[in-house]
Prior knowledge:
By secondary structure, this protein is an alpha+beta fold. The chain is built from 18 helices and twelve strands.
Amino acid sequence: MAINYNINPYLAGNVVIDQRPFVQFFQQQMAQRQAKQDALDNYFRDMGKNITPAGMRSQDVRGLTQKTNEWRQFYAQNKNAIVNPRIDNGKAYTEYMGRYQDQLAHIEQSKRALKTTDELNKTRLNPQTSFILDDPTIVDKIKLHDLPIGDQRRQDIDIATLAVPPKPWDIKDREAYSKYLTAGLQYNETPGATQYLPGFKTRTPITKQYSDDNLAVIGNRAASAYDTDRALQFQTNKIVKDVMDNPKLHEQLNSIYRRIYGKDVETPKELLAAQSMLEENRKSIEFKEGEDVFGRQKAMEAIHFGHQKELKKGDQEAADSWIVNFWNNRIGDAKSGQPTPIPDPDNPLTIKMAYEIKPDGVMMKGLARNNQEPDRVYVTADNKIMPVFYKYKEDYDEKTGKKIGVSIKTDAAGNPEIDKDVSKSMDLDQAYLSLGYKGQTKKQLSTTMGGAYSQPAQKTEQKYNLDGKTYSHSQLNKMGYTDDEIEQAKKAGLIK
């Protein structure tokens, strides 16, 4: 029997098909697709939460914001291809993720740079390490490091690999450098006014300073050392910084450089040469102790002739004569030498030619003002006496702050400052009065006053007869006879 497989369900009449399972299946599939789509959207949307400027340098935020905006715009334009990589074989998805990673790298690089900046600031604030950042090569690296992320010129700095510059010089370094600059050079020595001390001692200040020729040697040595000594280059950078903040210091350095080399300072090397010359050009004063031979001689004359006692008793006319001769003799001695240009105390900014008088204790006491004796005494061509008083200052030890003495104040050119309040010129009549002219008791003194400058009478030397010839005592000495031998010869009758 044949079997018929062609069954028609509609042959049995109207049949109703239940669609609910299909609809439910369809809805489930669509819901799953939508859930998958929403999950992908949320995934890509949540990626943006990791893109934040927190912890970044301010100069890098703008670049990150630009990258983020472009990244979101790319997503909006290529969403389907990004979510469904099969559309373009993953091309859009790969670019999208690359842009995302670029933003993360931008953020991380900025955070590292900020950490480096913090370390540099710690170095700058630490007195033990701040000198490192004075090195110009490191300063240049910091400038490149501070550029925004993405700038083609920007370079990272690795703190651990920085080439640490030499440490700042200490006292020993400066002393060694000074010895190098001045090796073999001699000071010019200029004696000042001699001070007359008790006990017929003298104390003369000797000002020591290098000549311009020696300063040129110092400047050349400094420039030569600059080319090869990194530590010196580092020190010069500090000098440059100081000069930039101090116009007065620049003028001092430029002035001495122009004086020696005839041109202005233009480079750090030339600035070092100027600073070295200025430092070594400082004057130093040493005191030379000596004997007041002239004072001792005058005191012996006064004791021998009784001037000090007799002046109070003697005739005023004779005393006046002695005073006049006193000044005339010293003025004559002074004018036998060459005149010296000195500032005129009576006329500011005026130079006068005058002859320096060699003073003694009598003169210094007579010209004293306010119990202060003058430092120098001059006489002009028209016979005006000019006692000059210098200004003095107290000197203190730089380390301990203790007073170590006094010294003469000098002006910017290194010349002693004159106390113009007491340094006044006087006529000869006033000079006479300073020693008591017409101010003593009237007694006769002409003999003792005149005798002070007269030569003592020469003793008649004894004569001897030897072998029929006459010789003086000194002639026998010159012939080789000692005093003892002469006495023995006299006793023996050999000399008569």
